[in-house]
Design a protein that fits this description.
Layout lengths: L1 H17 L28 H6 L3 E7 L3 E7 L11 E8 L3 E11 L11 H4 L6 H12 L7 E8 L11 H16 L1 H7 L6 E7 L1 H16 L5 E7 L5 H8 L6 H13 L1 H10 L6 H7 L29 H5 L1 H7 L16 E6 L8 H13 L6 E6 L4 H25 L5 H4 L7 H5 L9
Parallel strand pairs: 4-5, 4-6, 6-7, 7-8, 8-9
Antiparallel strand pairs: 1-2, 2-3, 3-5
Helix pairs in contact: 1-4, 5-7, 8-9, 9-10
The structure holds 2-acetamido-2-deoxy-beta-D-glucopyranose (NAG) (4 copies).
């Protein structure tokens, strides 16, 4: 993680340049009326009506970047399909290529709605939401000068359901639909024939992979021409075991609270099972507000903590709710020929990734994708010896070149073999940062 923080310092400049000066600090989402959905046009019982109005722009405003509220009206909040509204942020670079949109699913990994990128990316945002979201955007910093328009959805939705796969997928696809809608295009300048590529690493890969499994049946007509999926947590339960007690243990608290946000029964059960001695219940639940205050909480961090030990019955919740965790937390169940998204995929991951371990789960997922559609359209980039943090730095440069090539292929309608044509040295993040503008994603 320290390595990543370093990258932020490196990239902050070009990011700040893009931001116009704005006087007042923005309100956090729970205080900001912009986030409240307007009265719906459909009665709760009119399921068709709701489904027809997903991905509709309900409200829009310009912040330092363009902010668009999207109608997430059939988004899955828990077991039922419930209407919801969510925000996506559209960033238009200084010199934009308006025929290209990259949907960046940022790994904001949080059960607090105030951690959403739509807030954290605003000028003068405060607290952890700002630090973390800008860190995530830092990887794209060179492209804020010139390149595709960026769509950055708050894909966890208004209830911050981090780690809930289907919801992340719905919201990602609905945000793209909204960004490409006429109402958005008149505002953002995105062209009618624009093509879209999705990109996500870690928590962002969770949203991107689920969206890809759903694309064929949920958003068939969206002009998506590729997806990059990096460091994908294929099974939430495995990730729980992998990171518990280690330097990323807080991830377990965020993931469990995110799922609890979506499942009331699990929420109640786990709250009741929290240990109250030494304020452990309060410490666990404090993460629900990790981005709600400008100054960090005084409480001790939970990294290296045994999260299971905060519960009376240890990690019993993993088995008690294994049906939920396997349904919404395991990738690949819906990879079928019928659900073939019809666009190329690129997977990259460290072979020593301690978050998504075991490696064979990732390999199985990729193999499954290879069985639907064309094998050569699924790129597999294992990064030998790299960990969860270092694989991102190593892989992102290659990913950007691949995306550039996929856009070219879609626009020219000619076969490009993007995977094979990438230069060998494209695997270094530092190289990526030194590209001259003419080489960038235009
Ligand atoms: C929803 O859309 C479908 C197809 O466009 C249409 O046939 C149907 O009448 C619509 N339903 C409602 C309630 O608007
Ligand atoms: C996910 O991982 C857990 C333990 O790591 C395992 O028990 C479970 O069967 C896995 N789920 C699926 C659907 O493979
Ligand atoms: C973590 O806590 C659980 C529940 O108290 C316990 O069963 C487990 O052994 C602990 N793990 C470690 C590595 O201490
Ligand atoms: C799986 O795909 C089918 C359509 O083929 C869809 O009806 C179903 O809801 C999908 N399930 C999930 C969990 O994505």
């Amino acid at each position: 993680m320290q390595y990543l923080l370093h990258a932020l310092l490196f990239s902050t400049f070009s990011f700040e340049q893009v931001l116009a000066a704005k006087k007042d600090p923005p309100l956090v989402p729970i205080e900001d009326p912009f986030y409240l959905p307007p009265d719906p046009d459909c009665l709760p019982s009119e399921v068709d009506c709701w489904k027809n109005s997903t991905g509709v722009v309900l409200r829009k405003r310009e912040v330092t970047v363009a902010n668009v509220v999207t109608g997430e009206r059939a988004s899955l909040r828990h077991v039922d399909e419930n209407p919801d509204a969510s925000v996506t942020t559209v960033i238009v670079p200084v010199i934009p290529n308006k025929k290209r949109v990259i949907s960046l699913q940022s790994a904001y990994d949080s059960p607090d709605t105030n951690c959403a990128p739509s807030y954290g990316l605003q000028h003068k945002a405060q607290g952890w939401g700002k630090t973390w979201n800008r860190l995530n955007l830092a990887f794209l910093a060179p492209y804020l000068q010139t390149g595709p328009i960026l769509n950055i959805p708050d894909y966890e939705g208004s209830n911050a359901a981090f780690a809930v796969g289907p919801q992340s997928g719905y919201q990602t696809l609905d945000s793209i639909k909204a960004a490409l809608s006429l109402e958005s295009r008149e505002y953002t300048g995105i062209k009618e024939d624009a093509k879209v590529i999705m990109f996500g690493y870690s928590g962002g890969a969770l949203a991107t992979e689920w969206a890809t499994e759903m694309k064929a049946w949920y958003a068939e007509t969206l002009p998506i021409v590729g997806a990059v999926i990096g460091g994908a947590p294929t099974n939430i339960t495995s990730t729980y075991h992998n990171v518990n007690g280690g330097d990323l243990a807080t991830l377990n608290v965020w993931a469990m609270l995110g799922i609890m946000n979506a499942y009331p029964t699990m929420n109640q059960w786990m709250r009741d099972d929290l240990r109250t001695d030494a304020y452990q219940d309060k410490r666990f639940l404090l993460e629900l507000t990790s981005c709600s205050y400008a100054s960090p909480a005084l409480a001790k961090g939970l990294n290296f903590a045994n999260i299971s030990a905060m519960f009376k019955q240890g990690d019993k919740f993993l088995t008690q709710f294994s049906n939920i965790l396997n349904e919404i937390g395991v990738m690949g169940k819906n990879i079928t020929e019928q659900n073939n998204p019809g666009y190329p995929l690129a997977f990259f991951y460290g072979t020593e990734d301690e978050v998504t371990y075991p490696l064979e789960d990732t390999q199985k997922l990729i193999d499954k994708w290879k069985t639907v559609g064309k094998v050569e359209k699924v790129s597999d980039w294992p990064l030998k010896g790299e960990t969860h943090a270092s694989a991102l730095l190593k892989g992102v440069g290659k990913a950007w070149l691949w995306m550039n090539c996929q856009f070219d292929e879609a626009e020219k309608s000619k076969e490009m073999h993007c995977d094979k044509e990438l230069p060998e040295d494209a695997t270094d993040y530092q190289n990526q940062m030194s590209f001259s503008p003419s080489q960038e994603l235009r």
